[in-house]
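Entry type: protein chain
Record version: 2
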Amino acid sequence: MELNGKRIVLGVTGGIAAYKSAELLRLLVRQGADVQVAMTEAATRFVTATTFQALSGKPVYVDQWDARMPNAMAHIDLSRQADLILVAPASADFMARIANGMADDLLATMVLARDCPLLLAPAMNRQMWENPATQRNVARLLDDGIGMLGPASGAQACGETGPGRMLEPEEVADAVVDFFVPKVLAGRRVLITAGPTFEAIDPVRGITNLSSGRMGYAIARAARQAGATVTLVSGPVALAAPPGVDRIDVRSALDMHAAVLERAAAVDIFIAVAAVADYRVANAAAHKLKKDHGGVPTIELVENPDILAEVAALADGPFCVGFAAESQNLEAYAQAKRRKKNIPLIVGNLIQDGFGGDDNRLVLFDERGSHPLTPASKSVLARQLVDHIAKLTGPN
């Protein structure tokens, strides 16, 4: 669970998007966070405090003079216990009040008295969001070091379409996880390949493999969380791009080769996770092959370019990380591959330990030897790999 041990105050202000906050609370708790909810009086007109109490397992605070606080200082006690205050939704009125230092209810007073970071997820009508007064308030809040999550653009409860929608709960929860990740790759430019390639035999058939892309996508997300600017060159997979990652879709090994070589000289780190086909069909048919025309077809194969080796050979090229998925003799094959390609780090795994699945077992091989990682989810392993890369590459 990515938020284990984190104490979060979830502030809810008045607006129709308050219904999203219930699901957001559920997601934060599922990730291991200890969440205390504080609501404005207006928020209770949209979703009751009972809902949030049931989901958090904690009493909800609305009144600044709540008698459950023996010292009548809920605004101090609640904020001092928090690692983060997250206000979602943050209404235009609430943002205006805190931009001007007002403390006229429990949540606003808590924000003013806090000694922890503050994130806002705005939600309002598009005209309210675009109003110059709101934009002045947003600029002031950003200048004060307050984080802004969104808003998104789309259909709104009033029937209009435009900017002002609160981000979806999953997006806000992901942003909270990102917030707590140490920015060990801040300022770095990272290029990653992921997924399989597809080598056409004819317009409907081809040679491919069982790579799901999950490991590469997890690494792309982890690198982005760690502060890097990330470009992901992806073969055909059924995955959404991680937030904030620039994804480039390719199909064949030659497509991936061209996309990578076009960008490799401009990045600091290249991580070759994709399961690139070693061979392609030399005589691919222009039309669908028919069984009743000429018997069994003969397929001639030619070798694909070695993308990782070419990038590693670039003068002043990026720090290169390879992957070795083997079915046996992992250390011998992985270290041999690392030395042959002349790269500083290779990540090895046995195919039977996680190829295509959600979990994996990885071993990192560098010039100092092998570094086995405890079996875990691919997202956890991805963060451990990113930390190892950051240590090997040193400060930016």
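Comment: The chain has a mean pLDDT of 91.
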